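Closing statement on the adenosine-5'-diphosphate sub-project.
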Amino acid sequence: MTDWTALRAADPKIIVGLMSGTSADGIDGAVARVHGSGVQTRVEMIASVTVPYPSPDRRELFALFSPPTGTVERICAFNFRLGGLLAQAAAEAIAAAKLRPDQVHLIGSHGQTIYHIPPQSAGAGSTLQIGEAAVIAERLGIPVVSDFRVRDMAAGGQGAPLVTYADYLLFRDARRGRAVQNLGGIGNVSYLPPGGGIDALLAFDTGPGNMVINGVVELISGGAMEFDREGGLAAAGRPDEALVETLLADPYFASPPPKTTGREKFGQGYAAGLLASARQRGLSDADVVATATLLTVESIARAYRAFLLPRGPLDDVIIGGGGSHNPVLRQWLARSLRPAQVRTTDEWGIASLAKEAVAFAILANEAVTGNPGNVPSATGAAHPVVLGKLVPA
Ligand SMILES: Nc1ncnc2c1ncn2[C@@H]1O[C@H](COP(=O)(O)OP(=O)(O)O)[C@@H](O)[C@H]1O
Ligand SMILES: [Mg+2]
């Protein structure tokens, strides 16, 4: 049983955010103390964990991403299996915070996107996140908010990016123009002009974050490596700038926001195509990874020039997500984005790997409070909506 009125009134709340992004590397869990709600929200991070998927589960997820292998039976079964893994990750995060489950007010769980169809015309889009929230609530006895994206899409939005609202609450500044850039599988940015209100936000997916880098690394290593740890391969290679130019001619990069993308576009097929072109041009393994890394960097830098700078100044670029742990990506971004300063969310007390998980803790708080959590200027939705579905403890 959950007394939603009492839960709404609790201040501060201890909230666990759970996120598994398009990289499908693992589950990020964050425990935060959330004070207030809406524009008054203040967040103190207590602990965070990243729980990598066991290899068989990761393989199963990739089978689900692909329509020929993602059968209804496998999706049905894995929805429950993933609910259990999410509950386990939440339990580990709660233990890392030195708390007990009965001290936690709420869990906000994004789940795992297995398919996303951006709306080409009004009402035509769809999205599917799995990781059964009922299993999490049953295992831990904590109320859960899940399935955040669907209401925004039902209101005509892209269902993404949803972290914009949290980026605004956490990082806005009266005097400095800021881009909050997530470097997950996909890259997405929230631009916060100085002193601007929530209506002044611009947010969209810049294109690949780590997804193409991971894709070519997996192909080159025959599956032995999942990513370019510490940017070691990229640092040893030389990017093929002409090939990057060709790749940047893809109409996705020039098309104006709102826009979102995903594994459907920049997944394994894309990486295989890039690798084939690179081989024809005689590139070494390291050169291919450097080229994929430069693609991410240049797609971000050019998107900022085309879409952010006409809206206002850019003083800080605040990066988060796994790619912020790739020093080559970070250095090349800093070089391309000068004079803006590239910083990480850690400087604001938010562990960079946990930033998106914290965002879903914040969105869960908004859901139980009854506040909208989408930013229509970012998602393209017709109006603000309350995001998420509530499962009692
Ligand atoms: N130490 C590191 N060096 C290089 N890349 C890293 C490192 N740590 C994480 N990453 C990259 O970050 C990715 C995971 O980022 P994450 O923010 O979890 O993305 P997503 O939200 O798509 O799951 C990994 O797949 C990898 O590409
Ligand atoms: Mg991840």
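Residues 20-21, 23, 25-26, 28 surround magnesium ion (ligand 2) (CB under 6 Å). With this model delivered, the sub-project is considered complete and its resources will be redirected to Aim 3.
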